[in-house]
Amino acid sequence: MHEMLAIDTERVIASLKHLARFGAQGQGVNRPVLSDADVESRRWLAGEMESAGLTVVVDAVGNVIGKSKAPRALLLGSHTDSVPTGGWLDGALGVIYAIETARAFNLQFPDAPIGCDVVAFSDEEGRYLSCLGSKWFCGELSLPDLARLSYAGIDFAGAAQLAGYDSEVGAQFDARRCIGYFEAHIEQGPRLDNAELDLGIVTGIAGMRRHRIVFKGQADHAGTTPMSVRKDAGMAAFEFAVQLRDSFVELGAPEAVWNFGAVEFRPGVANVVPKEALLTLETRDLRLEVLDEMQKRVADLIESNDGRAGVSITLERVGDLPSAIMDARLLQHVASSAAQLTDKTMHLHSGAIHDAMVLARHVPSAMLFVPSIGGRSHVYLENTADKHLRMGAEVFAGAALSMISGG
Amino acid sequence: MHEMLAIDTERVIASLKHLARFGAQGQGVNRPVLSDADVESRRWLAGEMESAGLTVVVDAVGNVIGKSKAPRALLLGSHTDSVPTGGWLDGALGVIYAIETARAFNLQFPDAPIGCDVVAFSDEEGRYLSCLGSKWFCGELSLPDLARLSYAGIDFAGAAQLAGYDSEVGAQFDARRCIGYFEAHIEQGPRLDNAELDLGIVTGIAGMRRHRIVFKGQADHAGTTPMSVRKDAGMAAFEFAVQLRDSFVELGAPEAVWNFGAVEFRPGVANVVPKEALLTLETRDLRLEVLDEMQKRVADLIESNDGRAGVSITLERVGDLPSAIMDARLLQHVASSAAQLTDKTMHLHSGAIHDAMVLARHVPSAMLFVPSIGGRSHVYLENTADKHLRMGAEVFAGAALSMISGG
Asked: Which stretch is the leader sequence (chains A, B) (predicted)?
């Protein structure tokens, strides 16, 4: 089997454009999970998988799975749901690459003992739950778990039933069958584009911790209360954020990122000293020790500032995603395949979450990034140069073949 | 006329308690302008004024005005509308003091050439417009101005008509008739209470300037965008607030106060770098030069921070209330009256707005403060010691008589 896969990059581009018609909004797509556009696109994807020589199963959450007739398989895929203001390639790229790779593989190696399975995951974007599809696929969720999910008053289970998904079709992941998982995706950030590189070899997906920091002081009339006796929860929050930023910068972890994405004052009116302030903080890094050190700095700063100027500070951990490390052996196949077409590659980690984060908990996994122009993501204008779409497809197919052949 | 006014402090307390039944919420009141409770309370107030020997006029906005039969008069009063979670004394105190003073004056000096007029102003709390009643009374608003006011989808003019107020009844203030305005009020702050004083002689009402400071950066994925390339409007706002606070402290103006009462991030979600942050800032001081210096420091800091880390900063002035200086001659009458009962008084300025701020633009004005326990205000638990309620009434009546007699 040590030859190239004869994939058709014209068909890759054409298929991506066809998929982008479902929920099209200008150049982008509005295709959230269980929207009409999402449900219809999955019927089309099922047909594409069948025409690529795969046997299709649609599970309880709408994951479309194309299975090779081989007893074992490398799993290829990504997701095809989008955020409401989504780009045409986010997720879609990895699924179309996977179908084209499986099609070529089945034509060239119809009787191989290890084949290519393909999956189009549902709700990676987390309308109901982040990576819902891959979690269901891997058996991490139960039917009662699904029954608890709702969005804007619509419960997931009812919407899935309306879409025709059979709640009896459970986790399709089979550890004896699956030799690995391989996913292509746009970068969703600017590093490849800024460095004018062609491809990225993803070493891992950063872990993320989400905190809510609550400052409690006292509401007072902002005109009549002397500054010296105020218990200003808002000012305490401002000061905390600046001090924590300085502490994180001083830490000097080059890949670490953090974000104060939301802040709320209560009562939040101009002439009342804020009695309460809520800060939302995310910290991310690939390395557990860096996440832990950031965590410690949050706790230390809370301890040293708590009670100052009459404002108490408490911490709530509201989310915790452990980082995922990609499989070194699989990454070597990706790097070798890329090296045949370009030397403009880099190893990098993903700051965004992907289905590979879930799959990596169950099977050796790998990811390939193509550059996103300007690093734009989750916007209609998201795009990737045609050259990179084609090169990515070739490298993806080559790496998949190499993983299957090379063991 | 150089005798004391024989007021009945029992009746003052009883009247305050009766008025507190309109919109009662525990110990406090929920009596916003044009609520049923507010409209009903004004009918009762009109009766009280008539029984005190005054001729009542209700104007287009619901101000209840009791006029002496004398050709000239000192105007006494305050407001009786409340915030939704209001105290029983805020505003009400000054109106009940005024009615009792007029009642005693009319009994003792039925034929005096200068009498006591009384007013219960409407919407001082600004549900539709801050000091709406006193502004209308003084001719600062036109019918078209009123027609533009609405709250929660209800237009003021329609609600006033439903309440039975006659839109033809215009400004009742008459500069030839009115020799001055005198208002009693609870302090709405902790200075008298903290210093264990009995009464406050108000030298002026602080001017207030309200600013909206708008920070504009760029929304980016908080996981995938390196810290070095972010244009984080939220962090810029935090840093600005801390720097401005330091600058205001360094200014060293002992009476100056400021407040960041509200902040908003857009889009305001945990995993997106804020593209926009809106900060609401109020600055207050009695002295124009201090307000101007604070204004200059806001502008200077915006200029020095604008464009830093890709975040632009712009300033909007969204409100400007000039400070009001109370009349020195009238204040001397207040101080002399107070000195007959206590030496535990202080001269102080008001950080909160009062109807006297509007009246002072048209006629010499003065204010008397009674302490508020714990400085609590705009809460149901607002209260004043019985001793201070009675002492305040005596001093108010004595000062009013002295103003009328002493010229």
From this structure: none
The number of C-alpha atoms within 13 Å of A1 and in the hemisphere containing its C-beta is 23
Per-residue pLDDT at A320: 87
Paired residues of A366 in beta bridges:
A182
For A63, A113, A114, A404, the CA distances from A72, given in Å and listed in that order, are 20, 7, 5, 10
Each residue of B101-119: pLDDT tens digit? Answer: 999 999 999 999 999 999 9
Residue A268: closest C-alpha in chain B: B262
Unique residue bearing structure tokens 């140069």:
A385
How far apart are alpha carbons A278 and B72 in whole angstroms? 56
CA distance A120 to chain B (A): 23
Tokens of B130: 């801050």
Neighboring chain B residues of A222 at a CB cutoff of 8 Å: 257-259, 261, 282, 284, 351
Nearest CB to B225; choose among A235, A260, A375: A375
pLDDT band at B2; cut points 50, 70, 90:
low
Tokens of B118: 């009384």
**Local confidence band at A407 (pLDDT 50, 70, 90 cut-offs):** low
Cis-peptide, bond into residue B84, ω within 30° of zero:
no
Size of interface A-B (CB pairs under 8 A): 168
Mean pLDDT to the nearest integer, B217-228? 92
Q: Which tens digits make up the pLDDT trace of A105-136?
A: 999 999 999 999 999 999 999 999 999 999 99
- Tokens 């509308």 correspond to B81
Examine the pLDDT at A1 and tell me if it is beyond 90: no
Find the helix or strand (DSSP H, E) in which B263 lies. strand B257-266
Q: In degrees rounded to 5, what are phi and psi of residue A293?
A: -65, -40
What is the pLDDT confidence band of residue A2, given thresholds at 50, 70 and 90?
Answer: low
**Residue type for position A236:** A
For the segment A22-74, what is each residue's pLDDT rounded down to a tens digit?
999 999 999 999 999 999 999 999 999 999 999 999 999 999 999 999 999 99
Distance of alpha carbon B230 from alpha carbon B294, whole angstroms: 30
> Looking at residue B130, what DSSP letter applies?
B
Spatial neighbors of B10 by CB under 8 A, at least 6 apart, are none
Per-residue burial over B282-291, b = 16 or more CB atoms within 10 Å of its CB, e = otherwise: bbbbbbeebb
Measured between alpha carbons, how far is B27 from B15 in angstroms, rounded to an integer?
15
Beta-carbon contacts of B159 under 8 Å, excluding residues fewer than 6 positions away, are: B34
- Per-residue H/E/C for B343-371: CCEEEEEECCCCHHHHHCCCCCEEEEEEC
Q: What does the alpha-carbon distance between residue B151 and residue B126 come to, in Å, rounded to a whole number?
A: 10
Domains of chain B with CATH codes: 9-205+324-406 (3.40.630.10), 207-321 (3.30.70.360)
DSSP three-state, residue A292: helix
Is A224–B351 a contact, with Cβ atoms under 8 angstroms apart?
yes
Burial environment of residue A204 by CB neighbours within 10 A (0 to 12, 13 to 18, 19 or more)? buried
Question: ipTM of this model?
Answer: 0.83
For residues A109 and B120, give the distance between their C-alpha atoms in angstroms, rounded to a whole number. Answer: 93
Matching residue, tokens 């110990």: B27
A269 close to B (CB below 8 A)? yes
* Residue in this structure with the two tokens 């409690």, named with its chain if needed: A216
Q: Is the peptide bond before B267 cis (omega within 30 degrees of 0)?
A: yes
Asked if the model's pLDDT at residue B1 lies above 50, the reply is no
